[in-house]
TrEMBL record, chain A:
PROSITE patterns: GATASE_TYPE_1
Domain annotation Glutamine amidotransferase: ranges: 8-208
Identification of the protein by name: Imidazole glycerol phosphate synthase subunit HisH
SUPFAM superfamilies, alphabetized: Class I glutamine amidotransferase-like
GO MF terms, alphabetically ordered: glutaminase activity; imidazoleglycerol-phosphate synthase activity; lyase activity
Taxonomic source organism: Aeromicrobium terrae
Summary of the function given for this chain in its UniProt record: IGPS catalyzes the conversion of PRFAR and glutamine to IGP, AICAR and glutamate. The HisH subunit catalyzes the hydrolysis of glutamine to glutamate and ammonia as part of the synthesis of IGP and AICAR. The resulting ammonia molecule is channeled to the active site of HisF.
Gene Ontology cellular component list: cytoplasm
Catalytic residues identified in the record: C83 (nucleophile), H192, E194
From TrEMBL, chain B:
Function: IGPS catalyzes the conversion of PRFAR and glutamine to IGP, AICAR and glutamate. The HisF subunit catalyzes the cyclization activity that produces IGP and AICAR from PRFAR using the ammonia provided by the HisH subunit.
Subcellular localization, as worded in the UniProt entry: Cytoplasm
Catalytic activity, reaction form: 5-[(5-phospho-1-deoxy-D-ribulos-1-ylimino)methylamino]-1-(5-phospho-beta-D-ribosyl)imidazole-4-carboxamide + L-glutamine = D-erythro-1-(imidazol-4-yl)glycerol 3-phosphate + 5-amino-1-(5-phospho-beta-D-ribosyl)imidazole-4-carboxamide + L-glutamate + H(+)
Organism ancestry: Bacteria, Bacillati, Actinomycetota, Actinomycetes, Propionibacteriales
Annotated pathway: Amino-acid biosynthesis; L-histidine biosynthesis; L-histidine from 5-phospho-alpha-D-ribose 1-diphosphate: step 5/9
Subunit architecture: Heterodimer of HisH and HisF.
Residue positions of the active site: D12, D131
Top-level enzyme category: lyase
Designated name of the protein: Imidazole glycerol phosphate synthase subunit HisF
Database matches in NCBIfam families: hisF
Record family assignment: Belongs to the HisA/HisF family.
Amino acid sequence: MSGPRVAVLDYGSGNLRSVVRAVERAGAEVTLTADPSVAEEATGLVVPGVGAFAACMEGLLGVGGERVVERRLIASRPVLGICVGMQVLFAEGIEHGVRSQGCGEWPGIVERLQAPIVPHMGWNTVEPGESSRMFAGIEDQRFYFVHSYGVRDWVMRSEPPFPQPAVTWTEYGPERFVSAVEHGPLWATQFHPEKSGDAGAALLRNWLDTL
Amino acid sequence: MSLAVRVIPCLDVDAGRVVKGVNFVDLRDAGDPVEMATVYDAEGADELTFLDITASSAARDTTYDVVSRTAEQVFIPLTVGGGVRTADDVDRLLRAGADKVGINTAAIGRPEVLSEITHRFGNQVLVLSVDARRSSEQPSGFEVTTHGGRQSVGLDAVAWVKEAVERGVGEVLLNSMDADGTKNGFDLEMIRAVRDVTQVPLVASGGAGRPEHFVEAVEAGADAVLAASVFHFGELTIGDVKNTLRAAGHDVR
């Protein structure tokens, strides 16, 4: 049996092999690629990312990744951003006082978490947005986070007939930040589904089911 | 509900095999790190740590193979420490499938390597591993050791952690060489002393014998608890530790 064809975008960031394996395990045929046309044509595209916002954005621009994401969304082709791969979808990131531009698919600023202990590292709970498909059947599970930055405000609304984005939140100490978004073909998680054991695998299957 | 306390088994790996007292009953091959990692994952481990104690650099290649085979099958975070000297070493381990890399002796000799690594890969990949013991010769009462706790390097353990955090490490693994192997509990004073100066996650290691010990370590300030032999010998399971933590009012996965 062959599953949906998924491309994982290779732009020099992070533990790509784990992402590839986890998406394969969830039932897809996965290609790791830096080729924009392959990334554009796949049924689903995963944009991973670890490290710094500015460095990731630079890497993404280096392979034309932001144009790939843009074109896919215009054609309603699913994209899943993970961790910094989610953060760069927002308008901008601020690191050490320096502002960097993101892809700007969503308004919002990625800022340093203000908690006694940062990075936010480990397994935390989620409060899925209404109408979430991403968390169907796994609403009560914990997912693995490792990040020092996040998005505190969600301001984007849709007009009918388009559905509202489903925004999922997570609390960490005094912070409450966006831990996942489902917005039409564009989905993203601040945590790492590929490192979240069976719960992560179920989430990836929920995504593959939309392809 | 909040962030869960992480319970982490540690496996000592030498030339691709798990060493140092392993006594799993239901394993076909007790010495295979990938197989053990799979069992711990199934038991609910929140992360895994491999400590590469391979002496020769030729045999070290097997470690990359072990890391990559583990990452193919186990979908929880994997930290690998031992023998890491440069940012290129880190790069190789990350490419093999490690999520975090532990550094110990090399950072003592050349602390700049910490920022070299974090500038390239981010803070979250780098774990400072500290083997410390009690000493009246250091202001904090704790000193850094090397060679399995046998050699002092004349460094205050609390001051060293503080410096390493300033240089960018994303997590601290604090191992008490006095408590290690005793099963009498973690060195709680050491955990408190390090917690006071550390704004990154703190993993406590050394001395675990009973489930209550893990609760004490968490209440002294540890974000995560690590143990080796009590898990390997089946004296405690990950589940035992989590049940006791939960009963004491701490969130676990």
